[in-house]
Design brief:
The protein is mainly alpha-helical. A two-stranded antiparallel ribbon has the order 1-2.
Length: 191
């Protein structure tokens, strides 16, 4: 908690450091259930943080409350920095998975008695998650190519009329509408 308060007070960048084993576990969790990890981030609250000693916790929480904007602003900044990190890590993992698929054409497999999605579907879910994070961060220009990649991948996997492909197409439309480049554009109804 103290490190987070100090990082925010100094205006420094929050860094996430994981051991190689933790990176492997995190990437597997990210590929299997991105939404769960994103929801866990929403639950971050400095006010609920713990310290080894109760007196330390109280002193640190008082320091957090004394920062510009207080605990609420601190929570917002922590979540923003973590989402930025998660969007980058998610995109990198999706790109690595897509590169593996193009190299060896892997298909669904089993690992530790847990069925793992085909790498293409995991990559698609990761790209979707990264796009959603970019929208949440207000980075609509960065989200649009991710939504487009999701659509292209779903179309290749399922065909143009599959429900998942059509959902991905609607996400591309959402990305276009949210993009600053579309400001002032009018929708033209089809005949």
């Amino acid at each position: 908690l103290w490190e987070i308060v100090s990082t925010a007070a100094a205006g420094a960048k929050l860094s996430v450091v994981l051991s190689p084993n933790e990176v492997n576990q995190f990437e597997r969790a990210l590929g299997a259930d991105f939404e769960r990890i994103e929801k866990m981030m929403d639950q971050i609250d400095v006010a609920n943080s713990e310290a080894f000693h109760r007196s330390d916790q109280e002193r640190i929480l008082a320091a957090a409350e004394g920062t510009s904007g207080g605990v609420q602003m601190l929570n917002t900044e922590i979540k923003r920095q973590l989402r930025t990190w998660l969007a980058r890590v998610t995109r990198e993992l999706a790109d690595r998975m897509l590169a593996l698929v193009s190299e060896d054409g892997r298909r669904p497999c089993c690992d530790d008695q847990t069925t793992v999605l085909a790498p293409e579907l995991q990559a698609n879910n990761l790209l979707q998650g990264a796009a959603d994070l970019q929208v949440h961060l207000g980075n609509y220009q960065e989200a649009l190519p991710l939504f487009s990649s999701c659509y292209e991948l779903r179309e290749r996997l399922h065909g143009p009329e599959h429900v998942d492909t059509l959902v991905s197409l609607s996400e591309v439309a959402r990305g276009v509408l949210l993009s600053p480049a579309s400001a002032g554009c009018k929708l033209i109804p089809s005949s």
